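Thread title: Can someone regenerate the structure for this chain?

I was given the following input by a collaborator and told the matching C-alpha cells would be attached. They weren't. Posting the sequence so someone can regenerate them.
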Amino acid sequence: MNNHHYNQSLRAYAHELRSESVSIAERYIWKQLLSRGKMGTKFKRQRPIDSFIVDFFAQEIGLIIEIDGNSHYHKPGYDEMRQSRLEGLGFTFLRFTEGEVMLDLQGVGTRIEHAVRCLKEK
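Best answer:
Regenerated them for you:
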C-alpha cells in the first residue's frame, strides 16, 4: 500500500475542491488543528483515494478524517458504503459533523490526537 490507493484521475477535481468549495468547518479544522503537522503527523486535504476524495488524510498512519455537512444527511447509505470500502483497504476513519468542529474544536482535537497516538503505536 505504498501509494495508499492514490487515484491520479481524481487529482484535478481534488484540487478544485481544495481551492473552491471548502466548507467553513473544513477551513477551521485545517487552520486550527491539522495544518503544518500540528497533530504530530502530516495531513493532506481533499486526497483522492480509490474512487473517492476524502477531506483529510494522514498517509503515515492511514487516518482519514471526514467532516459531514448538510449534504451528508441526505446520503447516509452512500457515506456508509464509502467508509466501509475505505476501511476495507486498511484505513482508519474519524467522522465529525460541521457542528462538532465549530462548537467543540477542543473535543474534536482531543479525539484526533488520541487516534494519531494510537495509530503511531501500531
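Strands lie at 44-49, 52-58, 63-68, 92-97.
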